[in-house]
Amino acid sequence: MQAKKRYFILLSAGSCLALLFYFGGVQFRASRSHSRRNEDSGVHVSPRQKRDANSSIYKGKKCRMESCFDFTLCKKNAFKVYVYPQQKGEKIAESYQNILAAIEGSRFYTSDPSQACLFVLSLDTLDRDQLSPQYVHNLRSKVQSLHLWNNGRNHLIFNLYSSTWPDYTKDMGFDIGQAMLAKASISTENFRPNFDVSIPLFSKEHPRTGGERGFLKFNTIPPLRKYMLVFKRKRYLTGIGSDTRNALYHVHNGEDVLLLTTCKQGKDWQKHKDSRCGRVNTEYEKYDYQEMLHNATFCLVPCGCRLWSFRFLEALQTACVPVMLSNGWELPFSEVINWNQAAVIGDNRLLLQIPSTIRFIHQDKILALRQQTQFLWEAYFSSVEKIVLTTLEIIQDRIFKHISRNSLIWNKHPGGLFVLPQYSSYLGDFPYYYANLGLKPPSKFTAVIHAVTPLVSQSQPVLKLLVAAAKSQYCAQIIVLWNCDKPLPAKHRWLATTVPVIVIEGESKVMSSRFLPYDNIITDAVLSLDEDTVLSTTEVDFAFTVWQSFSERIVGYPDNSKERWGYTSKWTNDYSMVLTGAAIYHKYYHYLYSHYLPASLKNMVDQLANCEDILMNFLVSAVTKLPPIKYKETMMGQTSRASHCADPDHFAQRHSCMNTFASWFGYMLLIHSQMRLDPVLFKDQVSILRKKYRDI
C-alpha cells in the first residue's frame, strides 16, 4: 500500500515538473525572441504582452472575406474607400504619403466615413522595422483609439517591412485584428488567400504616378541578348538570403552567366569575410549593373534579407525575364496575375540546374515572356498609383463577384485597371477581345452630332451633315446632342432620313456631355461629329471601314502636338491626336471618360469649353499605348478652323490643357505617328470607274 502511495506521489511530482518545464520553456523562448521588440520605449513589457505582440499577426489567420468582412457596407454604398484624417504631429514617410494620395485621387475615394466600404489608416504602417527611422512608435494604442477601428474589420493595412534584423519575423508590432494586409514579402504560409493582397516591394524613389515605360522598344528576333543570366548584389554572409546567394558562385561562369556578389555589407563586413571574398569583390567591380540588366535575357531574383527583392521590378521594367528563387514567397497580385506567362519560377534547392533549364526555353517562348513583362510592368507596377489601384480593384472584384474580371482581362492588354466590369460582364462589349472571342468588329455605327448653334435655316451645315451621315450603308441611327442655349427645335425642322434621328439635350450644356455614355447609343461604334464638319457619305463609309480594322483606337481627322508640351495645328506628316469633331471610336470610351477620369480634369474642360478632344486622346492613348489613325486631310468646316486660328487664347488654353493632363497621367501619353490610310487608287491616274470610293 505504501509503495503504491510513493509511486503515485512520484508520478504526480514528475507530471508537475514536466508541465512547469513546458510552460516555463515556452515563456522563456517567447521572452528571448522578443527581448529586442519593446515598442513603448522605457515602459516595462511583461512576457505575456510580448507573446501577444508576437502572435498578433496570426490572430486573424483564419480570416477570409466571408468571415471577417462586412459586405453590407459595400452593397449599400458601392466600393468607396475612406482614409482617416492625418493626426497632428504624426510623421508619414513619403512612400506612404504617395499611397494615400493615390487613394484620395482615385474614383474610389470618399471623405465621408458613413459612405465607406473600406478604411485605410493615415498612421504610417509601411515600415515596421524597429531599426528604421520611419518606424512609428506606440502604434498599438494609436490604432485601438480609432473610433472606426472595429477590430480591423473592413480595414486595409499597407506594409512593406515587418520586424527587424536578424530574424525578420512577421511581427507588425500591433494587433491587426480582422484587417486585410496589402503586404510585400509575405510568405505562402502566412498569406490568407482571398483576403490579403501580396504587393511588390518598391523603393522610396518609385514614382507616384505615371512611371517610365518598359525598355523593350523592338521585338528583336531572335530575342536573345548578350548575357543569358545575370545578377549583381550583396552576398549576405549571414541571415535569410545567405544560403542561396553563397551558392551563386558555383553557377557563375564569367561569360554569359554573370552572378556577381560582394561581401561588402555593413561596416563590420570584414569580421565575417571568408577566403572567397577578395576574389568575388574584385569580380563584382568589373561590371556595370545597368549595362548587365539591359543586355540580359534572364535576371535571377533570389530572396534578400526577406523573401522579396527590389530586383524583381528592375527585371520587369528592362524586359529581363525574372528567374524566381524565393521558395515560399507569395508573388505580387498572384490572385489575378498568371506569373508563368512572364517569369521562370525556380526552386532554391535546384539552383545548379537553372542555367541548363533556361537554355532549353524556345526563342518563341522567350519573346512571349519578355513581351508579358512589359505589359505587366506598365499595367500594374510602374507607379505607386498603379500598385494601389490594382490592390483596390482586386478587393472590389472579391466583393462584387458577379461582375468580377476574369484571368484573360487581368493578363491581356489593356489589363484590369482599364476594363471596368461595371460597364459589362461580356468581353465582346469591349474593343480589345474580338480576336480572342472570334468576333468580327461592329458592322454599324451611331453618328453623334454636337450642335451648339440655333437651327435657323434649312441650308445650315448641320443638316447637310445629318443627311450625309444618314445615307451611309453603315449608319444605324443619328443622335443630335443639343448643347445650344436656345430651346430644342420642333421635330419638323429636322430633315427626314432613312435612319432614326434622336435629338437629346446635353447634360448641363457643357463640353464633357458629348462623351457621356448615353443609353440611346445602341451600337458599339460612335461617329463623333461637330455640327460644322464637312463630310460626304463616301468619306463616312471609308472612315468606318478603316475603324473596323483598328477598333480599339480613335480613327479620324488629324491634329498635331509637339513633343513637349507644345500644341500646334500646322499641317505636317507627323501627328499624335485626331480631332473628335470628326472621328470614330468605340462607345466604351464614353464610359471610361465619364467614370475613370477625375472630376477635376472634366471640370477644367467644361470651364474652358475647350480641350475635350485632347483629353479623350490622352485617355485612349493611356489605354492602348498606341497612336490614333489618320484617314484623310480635309474634313473640318473652314468656319470652325478659321475662328479658332484667329483666337490666340484658343491655342494657349490647349497648351495649358496638355500640361495639366500630362501631369495627372504622370507623363506625356500621346504617341506620334506618320501613317495615313487612303482608299486604294486614291491618287492614281486611273478611270474613276475603277475606284471604290469615287467621291473622295
Automatic annotation (TrEMBL):
This protein's GO CC annotations: endoplasmic reticulum membrane; Golgi apparatus
Record localization: Endoplasmic reticulum membrane; Golgi apparatus, cis-Golgi network membrane
This protein's pathway: Protein modification; protein glycosylation
Main subcellular location of this protein, as a coarse class: endoplasmic reticulum
Chain segments annotated as transmembrane: 7-28
Gene Ontology terms describing biological process: heparan sulfate proteoglycan biosynthetic process; ossification
Domain Exostosin GT47 positions: 76-358
Keywords attached to this entry: Disulfide bond, Endoplasmic reticulum, Glycoprotein, Glycosyltransferase, Manganese, Membrane, Metal-binding, Signal-anchor, Transferase, Transmembrane, Transmembrane helix
Reactions catalysed: 3-O-{alpha-D-GlcNAc-[(1->4)-beta-D-GlcA-(1->4)-alpha-D-GlcNAc](n)-(1->4)-beta-D-GlcA-(1->3)-beta-D-Gal-(1->3)-beta-D-Gal-(1->4)-beta-D-Xyl}-L-seryl-[protein] + UDP-alpha-D-glucuronate = 3-O-{[(1->4)-beta-D-GlcA-(1->4)-alpha-D-GlcNAc](n+1)-(1->4)-beta-D-GlcA-(1->3)-beta-D-Gal-(1->3)-beta-D-Gal-(1->4)-beta-D-Xyl}-L-seryl-[protein] + UDP + H(+)
InterPro entries: Exostosin, Exostosin_GT47, GT64_dom, Nucleotide-diphossugar_trans
A UniProt-annotated Pfam family: Exostosin_GT47
Bilayer disposition of the protein: Single-pass type II membrane protein
Taxonomic superkingdom: Eukaryota
Domain Glycosyl transferase span(s) in chain numbering: 445-682
EC numbers, comma separated: 2.4.1.225
Molecular function GO terms recorded: glucuronosyl-N-acetylglucosaminyl-proteoglycan 4-alpha-N-acetylglucosaminyltransferase activity; metal ion binding; N-acetylglucosaminyl-proteoglycan 4-beta-glucuronosyltransferase activity
Quaternary context: Part of the heparan sulfate polymerase, a dimeric complex composed of EXT1 and EXT2. Could also form homooligomeric complexes. Interacts with NDST1.
Family that this chain belongs to: Belongs to the glycosyltransferase 47 family.
Role played: Glycosyltransferase forming with EXT2 the heterodimeric heparan sulfate polymerase which catalyzes the elongation of the heparan sulfate glycan backbone. Glycan backbone extension consists in the alternating transfer of (1->4)-beta-D-GlcA and (1->4)-alpha-D-GlcNAc residues from their respective UDP-sugar donors.
Name used for this protein in its record: Exostosin-1
